[in-house]
Amino acid sequence: ELYFKNLSKQKQKVEMEKNGNNHKLRVCVATCNRADYSKLAPIMFGIKAEPQFFELDVVVLGSHLIDDYGNTYRMIEQDDFDIHTRLHTIVRGEDEAAMVESVGLALVKLPDVLNRLKPDIMIVHGDRFDALALATSAALMNIRILHIEGGEVSGTIDDSIRHAITKLAHYHVCCTRSAEQHLIAMCEDHDRILLAGCPSYDKLLSAKNKDYMSVIRMWLGEDVKPRDYIVALQHPVTTDIKHSIKMFELTLDALISFNKRTLVLFPNVDAGDKEMVRVMRKKGIEHHPNFRAVKHVPFDQFIQLVAHAGCMIGNSSCGVREVGAFGTPVINLGTRQTGRETGENVLHVRDADTQDKILHALQLQFGKQYPCSKIYGDGNAVPRILKFLKSIDLKEPLQKKFCFPPVKDNISQDIDHILETQSALAVDLGGTNLRVAIVSMKGEIVKKYTQLNPKTYEDRLDLILKMCVEAASEAVNLNCRILGVGISTGGRVNPREGIVLHSTKLIQEWSSVDLRTPISDVLHLPVWVDNDGNCAALAERKFGHGKGIENFVTLITGTGIGGGIIHQHELIHGSSFCAAELGHIVVSLDGPECLCGSQGCIEAYASGTALQREAKKLHDEDLLLVEGMSMKNEEVVSAAHLIQAAKLGNTKAESILRTAGTALGLGVVNILHTMNPSLVILSGVLASHYVNAVKDVIHRQALSSVKTVDVVVSNLADPALLGAASLVLDYTTRRIY
Q1: CA 258, CA 241: separation in Å to the nearest integer?
Q2: Which is one GO molecular function term here (predicted)?
Q3: Is 601 annotated as ligand-binding?
Q4: Domain CATH for 593
């Protein structure tokens, strides 16, 4: 015997020298309530079993020392642990203030205890307010902290407390792979995270086959059989106390109606717990023949009870964590455990607002048997944790290091930018409509206003000002900060001065018009003006297919034909602001007359106006309508009728559209041979009808070196408005405060 003792001592000495640490690690384990002790006890037993490596100090506080909650410190003594210090830290009360005062009282008392103990490391469990006081005290007193069960997600204030303790802790023991990933995402050092599993599983997975009938009879009565009773454990939700008390009342009503023997455990010490106890007494639960109401059940016996229950109901983390190890059906009520990983044995009733809903859940779950789940552990957590503790080098710097992901250079921001959505007022002056929109930085049209475009200059300018003022006022209510006004208009524009030099015949009385000055004077905002084709190109550059493309051309097909050219990422205006008048590229010397006064322009063939002209000719000759089409007497013939007729097999309409597509395609070929862009974007209402024809012409007519160009249809719903907005957003957001 002596020989083996000496041999054992030599092995221990060799192991300690191998670890390079002759100093016993002084570990302080602080436990606050029955729940955290069930997780900490297996670790405490492991530490106690290796006195050559560890010195264990046990501090007891919180509800352990309160008679109303069963004086659960006694089970710690029964487990043969020496309690070094007992701290009465719970301030009696029934609201949130009592929890705050309890944390404050613990913070007042703990420094003296920690000064006397001088632990190398403190082990803290979970997400209770008492644990937050422990972690705060230890961190401020430069004591290393090992946090058990960090990185998990659940409902209520527990989430915030758990993550706050994570930030204070130096080392982390987590139970699931997801929790480990959450800790890494929270910038914790991966080398200080141990995926061990839940310590309570070390006891759970070996406990089920022990004598359980005596335990069931002790707590529920002699006549109760396995799988024929319910365990209920429900706690107040501190972020919504009234609702959680109402839900507890409904739960008790459902359990009374269900008429099965039920063991009801008293709730945790939390704001609202006393009210829940009053609800129990009001309903006579303590004297009801079907109920047994208890303050505390020792963990070993509690395991046996839930392992052989017909169902567990409530909102305790035990239901979604530990009970899965036995496959016992669980009904999880409310939001307290929202986000927890659960096995298939858990049925969630998140909106438990009626007795019938809870009763139905009981009917679905009671008596079932699910496969056992090991999400939270495999029964080997404690050996891993002890090995992790032995690996801690006390010579390492105490200061925590956070592993932040790489971030872009910081740009300081004005408070208005933080609180409000940076936006632009976009104005689109079309041949028919006048539109104003609030457009966000991401290209979202927050709100849009549309009116018919007046025929006279005075009426048009008055309407623009009125609509802009209305939109700017509404932007305040929508929490949008307007950075400026961008205007998209037909015609030739001097963008440097904000003046429309002259317009097409589609917009009357719109030459030599200064738009910048009157709008800027009224709104006290900077104003940018540009041609609608150029705006379409800018919209594609910022929000559409042209994003990141160095050289591309946009063709806008609508009432007229316009466009814009982006060369080396910049918009081309030309020496007299006439660049990209793509609608007036001549593709036939004797073609139809264009609104510009010339003949054979693309616009004279492929614009909405040109198609309407041809549709009217067919209609006058009674050649437009085919089977499946009808028109009212007062209905105006439009390009849409021509397109519809072509789709229904009208050969004359098909020929006109084919000619229009060919004309547009020839214009694109000229652009390719002139600018050599890598992308052509067709925008506007007619784009989808022309894209295939344009590709065919390129294939037939273009030089081989440009045939590979991409031709796509724009995916932007409002290129003119988005382009007008980009005039503002691209310029104003270049500023760095």
Answers
A1: 26
A2: metal ion binding
A3: yes
A4: 3.30.420.40
